[in-house]
Amino acid sequence: MRILAVADTVSKYLYDYYTPGKLDGFDLILACGDLSRDYLEFLVDASRCPVLYVKGNHDDSLIDNPPGGCICIDDKVYVYKGIRILGVGGSNRYREGGYMFTEDQMRRRISKLRFKLMKSGGIDILVTHAPARHLNDFDSLSHRGFECFNLLLKKYRPSYFVHGHIHKNYGINIPQKTEIDGVTVINAYDYCEFEYIPKQNIQNKNEKKAAF
């Protein structure tokens, strides 16, 4: 499954230099927050696949005026073609805002998802706006990741963790893709394409390689 992840800025490649059919090859679009309503609706109109989104810390306007045609997965386990996707938007609270949370608030929010996670039997993709603590984040409160996201990754071991909030122009060593304990971590700033491969298929490929 070919997936497009986007976050934080209107991509010039996808929007300014758009040509008809550019988004036809994607099976799913994951929007990781801080994107305008107009841009999200453009992605819906220009693609032939679902656009799932979580809200970022600058997305207060989307609370009462959500983008048409998109699916908000905040605080949900959304299953698409058998792939279990958990959405948890928002950032650390560094000022007043509708989608900013303290560590304790985010921990309680995730705790309320316990039944949904138990019912789904786990998750395959974790979609957030903020990163996890000490994983693509910074020490400043405004761009600090959440410790409780690390607990989610450790407990449920999704194949992919896709987040935004950390702009690549914040530093020269900010990776777009990282492998941590079997989880592929993707910083969706601007845009990032990736191929979703179920863990079982990865294991089978590795076993075949080992046989030779």
Order of helices and strands: EHEHEHEEEEEHHEHEEEEH
Strand order of the largest sheet: 5-6-9-10-12-11
Count of domain modules = 1
CATH class group: Alpha Beta
Q: Give the amount of beta strand, in percent.
A: 25-35%
| Second CATH tier, the architecture | 4-Layer Sandwich
Count of helices? 7
Helix content: 25-40%
What does the largest sheet look like? 6 strands, mixed
The CATH topology corresponds to Purple Acid Phosphatase, chain A, domain 2
Q: Using the alpha-carbon principal axes, give the shape.
A: globular
| Rg | 17 Å
Number of DSSP strand runs:
13
- Structural category is alpha/beta
Mean pLDDT: 92
Name of the CATH homologous superfamily:
Metallo-dependent phosphatases
Q: What is the rounded distance between the termini?
A: 27 Å
Poorly predicted spans: 202-212
Please provide a written account of the structure.
The structure is a single chain. The chain is an alpha/beta fold and 212 residues long. It has one domain (2-211): Purple Acid Phosphatase, chain A, domain 2 (4-Layer Sandwich). The protein is built from 7 helices and 13 strands. The protein has helices spanning 12-16, 37-46, 61-64, 103-111, 114-120, 147-156, 199-211, and strands spanning 2-7, 28-31, 51-53, 71-72, 76-80, 83-88, 91-92, 100-101, 125-128, 160-163, 177-180, 183-187, 190-195. The strands form 3 sheets. Strands 5-6-9-10-12-11 form a 6-stranded mixed β-sheet, covered by helices on one side. Strands 4-3-2-1-13 form a 5-stranded mixed β-sheet, covered by helices on one side. A two-stranded parallel sheet has the order 7-8. Helix 3 (61-64) links the parallel strand 3 (51-53) and strand 4 (71-72). The radius of gyration is 17 Å and the shape is globular. It starts with a strand and ends with a helix.
